[in-house]
Amino acid sequence: GNSGGGGSRYSALKDFDDADDHQRRKDRNKRRVSFKPFPHKKDVKLRVEDARRLWDEDDDMTESTSMAKDRPSSRRRGSPIPRGKFAKLMQNSYGWYQVTIHNGQIYDKETLIRALLAAMSPHVFIPQYWRVERHSVIFYTDDFELAERIQQLGRHAQLPDGFRLMPRVRSGIPLVAIDDEFKLKMKTAMAKRYNVQTKALDLSRFHCDPDIKPIFCPLFRANVMSAALDIISENIPDIVAINLNENNMTTMEAFKSVEKRLPNLRILYLGDNKLPSLAHLLVFRNLPIVELVLRNNPCRSRYKDLQHFVSEVRRKFPKLQKLDGEALEPQVNFDLNETATLPTTKASFLCDNAGAELVRQFLDQYFNIFDSESRQLLLDAYHEHALLSITMPSANQAGGRLNSFWKFNRNLRRVVNSERDDLRTKLLKSGRLACVSTLDEWPRTVHERRTFTVDLTLYNPQMMVFTVTGLFKELTNDNDGPSSTSSMQPYELRHFVRTFVVVPQNTGFCIRNETIFITNASQDQLREYKRSLHQPAPGGSNAAGGPLATGLTVVGGGPATTDNSLRNRLNPGGNEVVAAAAILPPSAGVGPNAATGSAGSPPTDDATKMQMVQAMSAQSQMNLDWSRKCLEETNWDFNHAAFVFEKLFKENKIPPEAFVK
Asked: What is its subcellular localisation (predicted)?
């Protein structure tokens, strides 16, 4: 009976000895070749290795269990923290720690605090800067030991409904709002740190000051540092030294214009901060810094050579005598007078006062024609072989495209010559006709004579060279006919620089060479121009092309005579900027004698007087009544009236109603 089928099975089991079992397990552990693609082969390998470890542990469960108890727990580098455990909290230099309770926003503050206090009993704490976010509640504490205890609560902190708080703790600094209470506490703490005798303020580790707690006051925040500077400048503007060591500062942005607020600051301690570069110290370059501390800053470690570091610091602070507590060797300075004052700026320059009247007349006639409806009359103003070059900056530099002039642009940085097209030569206009034709393609313009400056750099019988700068209006609507010169005409304000080389021809002069630079008016120029529209312009002109007023100043030259011509009204001593005399253009219809009143009797006809009144009003910006009064009191001597007006205007003796039109 034992030889049946069942017996054969038992006999087979008897034949399965330990050697066979070992061989079968050995074969089982061999890796099998597979042609199936596994996108995560690394994960598969880890699973096989885990399986091998489990199979080996099955051989001797008792031994593996005892070894596991003796072996310390560890995890692979980069693997996540096991559930229910948190990374060890590290103490930071700020002294503040952030506590986050996820999903805590669904409970009120009192309920959460009561649960935390119950779990931490008998320890007591007061949460700071409590705020509710979308999926959590966040608060801060400035006690490291307390932060550790909160982190160790884990699942022990529980609400009555069974919700486990599971607070997460990490290093973090709260957001602070600057208000009057905040500034008052800052001021109180700073008052205790100020030394009246040495005029020194110690703000080192200011965020750890016990007089400020529990408010967090980080000076490395720009708004907090700005508030501190406000307090300093308002209460101790004569401060000499400030200690800002150990404040974790990364930038000095709050110290902009510090030389105006703290002009006597000479000693500055910035050690143990986080300034990455010496460039952050440029805000102090206008202060007479004599002592500076920069130790333990990243900017110091950027220089391997100490002498190089010292040299770079001294280049920014030439008067520095002490760096990081070490006295520096005196620098070799040249004997320069540091207090020397620059010459007074002049509105214009004339190398020879003899050319003043000639330049004035030339420009007066030139721009009268240039701003007229047709520029063809300028043909007589250019030499037969004249050259003209027009340039302008790129759109980025000019603040916008100069579309009306762009096709004439001969800026050598953008004009690239090719074998087939020599643009540099093509854009250089040669000959009288080419020059005037180019200028005639310009849109209608109105040059603002009151903005002109003129520099006469060369004047001799063979030629004269002068440069004119100023503003002009580019009229953007040419469909209004003659009325387009109205002040209501839309326009774009442009800035120009034009250099003329003028040579004698027959009984007059003509332009031999001209360069023109055009760009958009800057914001400062635009503001100044708009401001000038509401002020009278002594010796100035109207926008429609009245008498030229350049504010010329003669440097050098002989003594002035007593007549009222422009040449002799310029200041030969160069001590004062003098406006040009008012000389009416021929198109005004007023004769020279009537205009100046110095070579004949006063005008008697009403038409001439009315023209003079209108000219005086346009030049002085006074209304017609006051312009007539000015002329009547000077016996209709136009130049004398202009002189009297200018003198009284400078003395602020002209009433405001004179300018009400």
From this structure: Nucleus, Nucleoplasm
